[in-house]
Amino acid sequence: MKIRLILSCFVFFVITLCSCQSQLSGAREAEGQAAATGKPQADPKVVLEIRLVLEKHDKALGEKNLDAVMETFVPGANTVILGTGNAERYVGVDNIRNAYTEIFKDYDPNTLDVSCDWKTGEHLGDLAWLAATCQAKDSLKNKERKYGLNVSAALVKYAGQWRFTMLHMSNLTCPPTP
Question: Is 176 part of a structural domain of the chain?
């Protein structure tokens, strides 16, 4: 279970980063769609700010810098990370810190490769959400692993900075049925 959480964290941030980058490049196209649908377009400044949070988290994971990882989360009692199973629930900053301490033990640094076939996200005021489905591979003790992931997250503006308040990662735990 810990291994899946570790892998999921890496994948989530790579996925979300890609999602934010595609939102930035599609801002002009969204402008026309927003006018046609009445739906507001993504603010490029907000997209950039969220991308920077993702980059900070990703860099901290690669460096196994626990304090920098924790700076990307809201320091609240209800901030949560969820995995696939019922027991994969880490609520509050102390539990999240403990989870990342274990996560750092379970992967080879700089081995993640992710390909996302679907991603989406939006922000409204001081709230943003992201979701993606991906195929990923990495290694543990130089042994390659491949897996699929579903990822979702919510970020809020906290003390003037975007931070995660919820992160959910799940992956297939048994072979698919024919």
Answer: no
pTM as predicted: 0.74
Number of domains the chain is built from: 1
pLDDT in tens, 96-137: 999 999 888 878 887 776 677 888 889 999 999 998 888 877
pLDDT, tens digit (0-9, with 9 covering 90-100), for 17-72:
444 444 443 443 444 444 455 666 778 899 889 878 877 887 787 788 999 999 99
CA quadruple 67, 114, 81, 49: dihedral sign: positive
Give residue 30's domain range: 2-171
Residue 82 lies in a domain: yes
